[in-house]
Structure prediction request, 117 residues.
Amino acid sequence: MNTDKIYAESIAKEYAPKDNSKVVALRKLDAKAKLPATVFTYTFGIITTLVAGLGMCLAMQVIGGTPFLTALGIVIGIIGFTGTGINYPIYKKMLEAGKKKYAYEIVELAREISEGK
Prediction:
């Protein structure tokens, strides 16, 4: 088997114009199903990581220096780490909901594409 030929064909397929609008529509539906979960996960992850970092700075007395702020930093850090810990399960639930919402349309369009070829 000529691996160079297979590699060249796969590269050519990437750059070839997509005449089949059903394939484009399928990709758009797939992205539409996954986008809300991805956006939420990145946003929530960044925010909770910053909260955890703030808590660590307060707890280690980088910011502040009083015993009250140290205790507050521990609490804030726990909240931040809890948020980062639950981020992935939330993502999985949201992704599952998005896939359920568009499942029928995606399956029907994929079936049309596969039977048409």
Notes: The chain has three helices and no strands.
